[in-house]
Design a protein that fits this description.
alpha/beta, binds zinc ion, globular
Length: 422
Amino acid sequence: MARMRQQARGIRPIDLTDVQLASSETARRINRDIVLELIRANQPISRADLSRSSGLQRSTVSQIVEQLIQEKWVCEGAIASPPRGRRPTLLGLNEDLVVIAVDLHPEQATVATVDLNGRLLDRSIVPITVDPAASTKSITDCIEHMRRALPRKSIEGIGIALPGRVDPANQRMIFAPNLHWPNYDLKGAVETATKLPVKMENAATACLLAEITFRRMDGVRDIVLVTISEGVGAGVFANGHLVAGHHGMAGEFGHVALDPSGLQCGCGRKGCWEMFASCSAALRYYKEFEPRAGTTTFNELLNLAEAGDANATKALAQQALYIGRGLRLIIAGLSPAVILIAGDITSAWHRFGPLIDKEVAEQTLVGTPPRILPTHDGDVARLRGAAALVFQRRSVGPLTKATQRKSNGKKASRDFLTAHRT
Ligand SMILES: [Zn+2]
């Protein structure tokens, strides 16, 4: 309390162009997000336990739970058997609420169904070409096929993780140097074909959202997630907020030049970080060391290294060195506490992790370097990211008319203060 009083005496900078007054509605939304998060983390859980862990009044918890059940986020499940007293009905996330997740790469897209707990229920691969309309048709055909296979599930929407940036103002792809689909309205095309709402986001930002949503990076307020695939992308979570930046372009570290006289990059410039650190770069290194080698995929390269191929090992070590070198840009600019790495390299973390750690430790200016961690589930991270786009947006959506009528504004505001004091 003493600390709170001290804070109340200070002046907090307020951006008057973007003020959200602490109305009772804001308080209700925040309380609702807290309850949903507690259910997600502690399911199955009773209303009484929700009230205890949130500090919210029992009646407020019941109102919020009723709203969440009505919106199909939460469902009632088993009945608990406490040692004595009334037997409460336990609550959990509704597993029948699903999202279609699309992970788009320049040569293929993965289409999957993901539930509210971030579990993958179904997955297919669709080939992608430089023809955006034909490629989108293959994706939407696959979505329709998947929908028919899940008649009992309620599909909340479609989330697409992209190898590029989306302008938050108009949801158009504005920068996708490896995809070559200029000025194509992907969101519009998928929405027209499927009649489902579509959310799109850069793959790295989507992965980061999934890590925050499903992995529970509790208490870590500064995280950068780097995707290493055909290119190198980054998503930024700074001081507890996802950063989009002007035109949604924040995080394009992959296109900062490490060597301005280097190879031509897909973005039109030369010697970008991704020309040294991407999986395509590793394949190029291998070809240089082993000119007689045929066409190899990155997974084949990983397998060759595991089988003891010296040139494959050398190519991957060079990629790891450049990943570590580029991370310096991120550490100098943002000083994150954690850097998460997503992509196929995470399956060979025993190989990449120590080399990247060493490079980063050598470059740390002062204090301890950030923790560099692989995302647990390789390519699944991008799919869960695409799903999180849809689930996340809805969690801050407007209240339904029915629950608005029933809620008592004053009480909700008081409860909000209580929840934040504990
Ligand atoms: Zn570039």
